[in-house]
Amino acid sequence: MTKHTAFAADDAIAAAFTSAPAAAQPGRRFMSYPPPMARGGCRVAAAAAARQATDPGAAGVAAGSWPELVPRHADFDDWMEKHPSALAEFESVLAAAKGKQIVMFLDYDGTLSPIVKDPDSAVMSEEMRDAVRGVAEHFPTAIVSGRCRDKVFNFVKLAELYYAGSHGMDIKGPTARSKHTKAKAEAVLCQPASAFLPVIDEVYRTLTARTAPIPGATVENNKFCLSVHFRCVQEEKWRALEEQVRSVLKEYPDLRLTKGRKVLEIRPSIKWDKGNALQFLLESLGFADSKNVFPIYIGDDRTDEDAFKVLSSMGQGIGILVSKIPKETSASYSLREPSEVKEFLRKLVRSKQRD
After folding, report:
1. Which of 78, 125, 143, 340 is the most buried (most CB within 10 A)?
2. Is 325 inside a domain boundary?
C-alpha cells in the first residue's frame, strides 16, 4: 500500500464489508480494572496539563509519512467477534448496565451525522435529533467533538445536553434545565487550553493563507484546535498540503499534529483529550470513583480512542466504535453507521420506558 492509497482505503474498503453479517456474541463479559480517575476538577487538571506537554512525535503524524487509517485485518468475522454489534448484543449491554446510572457520550461527525465533503454541511437529521433528545430525557448526555463547541451546538440544537468541543478542551454544561442537571453541573466550564487561544488564531490565519493555492483544502478554526480538511483535495496534492502544514508548525513547537478521517488536526501539546473530558464530566455529575455509573461512549474516529481507553481502564461502561471496516480499537462493541447509532439510542429509550 502506498502512502497516498492508505487514505483512499478508508472509503474504498468500506464497501467490501457493508454486506457482512453482524455476529452476535452471547455471554459478553466486562473486565474489571482499577479506576484511574483524577480528582480536583478542571483547574487542577488544566495546571497539570500545562506542565505535562505530550511528545509531539509520539501520537502525531511522523514527518514524511501518511499513517494508514485502516490496519491490516484479514478476517472481518474475527474482528466482529472481538467487537460485536451493539444492536445484536443490546440485551447484554442492558444486563451490564442494570442497577447503574447510564451516562451517554456521543461524538458528532460520523456518529450523529454522516461524513460529508463540506464540513459545514454535516447537518443532523431531525430523526437523529429526536433520538438524542429522547436519550437525554432519561440519561445525562454529552456531545464530545473535535468541532468548536458553539458550532456543534448549532448543529445539534439541544440545550439540555453537555457539550465538549475542541476534542474536550472546551466544556460547558446545559443551558436548559433537565432532571439530570445540578446547580454545579449547569455551571460547568472547563477550558484547559485557554492560554493557547492567541497562538491558535495566529496559526489559523497563516495556514489559511498558505493552503489557499491547494484546491479543496479548508482550514477550520475550532477555537482551541484547528482542522485541515483534505477530503476534497486531489490525492496527488496531499503531500504538498502536508508540507505546507508542517512548514507552518515548525515555528510553533507547543502545537502538535495528529490525524483523523481525511483531516489533519492541530492541537496544543497538553495532556488533555476526549478521555480527560469524559472523566471531568463524570466527576462534575457526581460520579467520580462511583461503581454505580455505566458510561456509554459512541464515536467513529481515532480521537475517540482516548475515551475508549479510559472506559477500559475504569472497567465500567462500554465504548462503541462506529465503522463499516475493521480498525484497531479499544471499544467493546461496534455499529456500522449513524443510522445504527440512531436505532441503538431509540432502543435505549424504549428499554427505559418499559421500566
Report:
1. 143
2. yes
Query: Which of 278, 257, 281, 276 is CA-nearest to residue 268?
Result: 257
CA 42, 44, 45 angle in degrees (round to 5)? 60
In-domain check, residue 123: yes
Pairing status of strand 255-260 against strand 263-268: antiparallel
C-alpha cell of 240? 504538498
Secondary element (H or E) of residue 68: none
**Among candidate residues 295, 313, 344, 350, the one with its CA nearest the CA of residue 100:** 295
Catalytic residue numbers?
107
Nearest to 272 by CA among 101, 93, 50, 79: 50
| Amino acid, single-letter form, for residue 167 | H
Alpha carbon distance 319, 268 (integer Å): 25
Residue 255 in grid coordinates: 502545537
Q: Smallest Cα–Cα separation from 355: which of 3, 42, 102, 22?
A: 102
The SS3 call for residue 182 is coil
pLDDT band at 354 (very low <50, low <70, confident <90, very high): confident
At residue 17, what are phi and psi to the nearest 5 degrees? -110, 0
Instruction: Say how many C-beta atoms besides its own lie within 10 A of residue 172's C-beta.
Output: 19
The H or E element containing residue 200 is helix 197-211
**pLDDT tens-digit series, residues 79-108:** 999 999 999 999 999 999 999 999 999 999
Reported pTM: 0.77
Length of the chain: 355
Question: How many Cα atoms occupy the beta-carbon half-sphere of 310 within 13 Å?
Answer: 25
In a domain? residue 68: no
